[in-house]
């Protein structure tokens, strides 16, 4: 019951974010959100098209842009020709990425609380030296995955 309540709460939050940018939460957008939620990892447009064959690619792209504008979806650029898409971490949980520069695979990683405190403190010091006030951070580590090594 808790998972269903959490999912409905997530959909209500997304609907409200879309309304703020004068967009509707259509069936196609909801299907994309459900897919990204179930996948639990960033997906390429090819993976999205394969999983949602009834949603034309052009519509999927438009929906992803609108969801990104509303702060629902985050676009992750890998080094291959395809970007990956995931739900914004404010809707899920704070995490970082390992991005393979060979195949473009993106892996989600959730570091320890100690790591997060250290990174936040260090980034805060770097930002303060420039008169900048950080509100959050994203760490994308580029390298080679085990399959490509």
Task: Describe the overall structure.
- This protein is α+β, with helices and mostly antiparallel strands and 149 residues long.
- The chain folds into 2 domains: 1-92, Winged helix-like DNA-binding domain superfamily/Winged helix DNA-binding domain (Arc Repressor Mutant, subunit A, Orthogonal Bundle), CATH 1.10.10.10; 94-149, Dna Ligase, domain 1.
- It has 5 helices and 6 strands.
- It has helices at residues 2-20, 27-39, 45-51, 57-69, 113-129; strands spanning 43-44, 73-77, 83-87, 96-100, 106-109, 140-143.
- The longest helix is centred in the N-terminal third of the chain and has 19 residues, at 2-20.
- The chain is globular.
- The relative contact order is 0.12.
Write a compact overview of the structure shown.
It contains 5 helices and 6 strands, in the order ααβααββββαβ. The chain is of the alpha+beta class and 149 residues long.
Lay out the secondary structure.
Elements lengths: L1 H19 L6 H13 L3 E2 H7 L5 H13 L3 E5 L5 E5 L8 E5 L5 E4 L3 H17 L10 E4 L6
Parallel strand pairs: 4-6
Antiparallel strand pairs: 1-3, 2-3, 4-5
Radius of gyration: 17 Å
The secondary structure category is: alpha+beta
CATH evolutionary superfamily of the largest domain: Winged helix-like DNA-binding domain superfamily/Winged helix DNA-binding domain
Shape: globular
On the 0-100 scale, what is the average pLDDT? Answer: 90
CATH class call of the largest domain: Mainly Alpha
Terminal CA distance reads 43 Å
What is the count of distinct domains?
A: 2
């Amino acid at each position: 019951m808790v998972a269903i309540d959490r999912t409905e709460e997530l959909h209500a939050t997304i609907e409200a974010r879309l309304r703020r940018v004068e967009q509707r939460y259509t069936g196609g957008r909801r299907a994309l959100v459900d897919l990204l939620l179930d996948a639990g990892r960033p997906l390429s447009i090819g993976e999205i098209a394969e999983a949602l064959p009834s949603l034309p690619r052009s519509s999927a792209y438009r929906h992803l842009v609108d969801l990104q504008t509303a702060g629902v979806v985050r676009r992750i650029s890998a080094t291959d020709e395809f970007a990956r898409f995931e739900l914004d971490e404010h809707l899920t949980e704070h995490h970082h990425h390992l991005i393979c520069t060979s195949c473009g695979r993106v892996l989600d990683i959730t570091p320890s609380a100690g790591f997060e405190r250290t990174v936040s403190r260090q980034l805060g010091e770097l930002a303060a030296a420039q008169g900048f006030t950080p509100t959050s951070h994203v760490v994308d580590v580029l390298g080679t995955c085990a399959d490509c090594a």
